[in-house]
């Protein structure tokens, strides 16, 4: 059976933490092999601190074009940074992939009733902006099973945490014109240690037309960038960003305590073939992050393909933030064709 509706069905993949995922069924059988379909597992953006599996920034092509090519799409929530940690995110990735490959779960039972089965040998993992951290965890961590056969990095955050951009204050406000920013609310959340554990913080249109969230968590990305505290929070190590920032770039990695190195999710030779998309004018996650990712992959002999989108801001927006960059459809067409080749 194939889907006749693009509406997702929601499941809870970790009942103890109420972590949810949305499933979009394939609308064609063109990628079905031996009765099984490939899975495209996507992690939403939001600077690791906010966002949701189904908010307004979910890329529409993922739940329309990919199902039409025969992919079953999974969009998953995960525990958000602060008060949760990167280690918590990695745990959630393990839990998610285990759930997707376990029989007799509510998801498996539902798919079986539709005569659909997931192909554990054809999992693709994708991360958008801050969601690239959990995607990278899936791609680089050998204990995550099933192993993804491809990793898609969409203007992904987290490939060069030791760069000057992440270790020093950055004025990102001119490049976030549609986001609410309330410094007072941000500071209050910081004083509260991030407040309660959150895994779903969907962007909403607030009074006045700005985008944000009623909890104010949307303020955290801008606040951490403006203050240069991102890496302090990421590594749960107050003061480490300023310490690293005073050292030459080539010496910074050696200054990190060994216990923190796994949180950088180092690339290994077992990392799957990777496709990187990034705008050349991105001021929220610099394209230098993706240059570093490309270099690291090539050093390990991992197949990598890149699409540097000329003039695109974060999210592949045009430089006036009035819509998507010119040529966006071509970007999507190229990556979809590549994904089809990987799973067929």
UniProtKB/TrEMBL annotation:
What keywords are annotated for this sequence in UniProt? Hydrolase
Q: Which residues form the signal peptide?
A: none
* Species assigned in the record: Cryptococcus amylolentus CBS 6039
What are the recorded Gene Ontology BP terms? proteolysis
Q: Where is the Peptidase S9 prolyl oligopeptidase catalytic domain?
A: 270-319
The answer to whether keyword Signal applies is no
UniProt keyword ATP-binding, yes or no: no
Q: Which domain of life is it from?
A: Eukaryota
Under the heading SUPFAM superfamilies, the entry gives: alpha/beta-Hydrolases
Name all BD-FAE-like domain ranges. Answer: 21-141
Protein name as it appears in the record:
Alpha/beta hydrolase fold-3 domain-containing protein
GO MF, one example: serine-type peptidase activity
């Amino acid at each position: 059976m194939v889907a006749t509706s693009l509406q997702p069905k929601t499941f809870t993949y970790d009942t103890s933490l109420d972590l949810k995922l949305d499933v979009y069924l394939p609308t064609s059988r063109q990628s079905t092999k031996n009765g099984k379909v490939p899975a495209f597992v996507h992690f939403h953006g939001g600077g690791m601190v906010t966002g949701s599996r189904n908010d307004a920034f979910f890329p529409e092509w993922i739940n329309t074009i990919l199902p039409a090519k025969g992919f079953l799409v999974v969009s998953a929530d995960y525990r958000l940074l602060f008060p949760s940690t990167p280690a918590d995110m990695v745990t959630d990735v393990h839990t998610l992939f285990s759930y997707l490959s376990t029989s007799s779960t509510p998801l498996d039972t539902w798919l079986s009733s539709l005569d659909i089965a997931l192909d554990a040998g054809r999992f693709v993992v994708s991360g958008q902006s801050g969601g690239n951290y959990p995607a990278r965890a899936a791609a680089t961590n050998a204990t995550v099973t099933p192993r993804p056969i491809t990793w898609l990095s969409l203007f992904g955050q987290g490939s060069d945490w030791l760069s000057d951009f992440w270790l020093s204050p950055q004025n990102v406000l001119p490049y976030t014109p549609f986001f609410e920013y309330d410094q007072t609310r941000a500071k209050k959340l910081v004083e509260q240690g991030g407040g309660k554990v959150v895994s779903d913080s969907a962007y909403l249109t607030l009074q006045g037309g700005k985008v944000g969230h009623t909890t104010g968590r949307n303020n955290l990305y801008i606040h951490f960038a403006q203050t240069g505290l991102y890496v302090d929070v990421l590594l749960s190590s107050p003061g480490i960003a300023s310490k690293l920032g005073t050292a030459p770039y080539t010496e910074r990695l050696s200054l990190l305590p060994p216990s923190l190195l796994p949180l950088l999710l180092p690339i290994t030779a077992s990392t799957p073939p990777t496709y990187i998309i990034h705008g050349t004018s991105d001021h929220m996650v610099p394209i230098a992050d993706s240059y570093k990712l490309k270099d690291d992959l090539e050093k390990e002999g991992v197949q990598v393909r890149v699409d540097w989108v000329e003039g695109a801001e974060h999210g592949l927006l045009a430089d006036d933030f009035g819509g998507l960059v010119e040529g966006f459809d071509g970007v999507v067409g190229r990556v979809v064709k590549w994904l089809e080749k990987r799973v067929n």
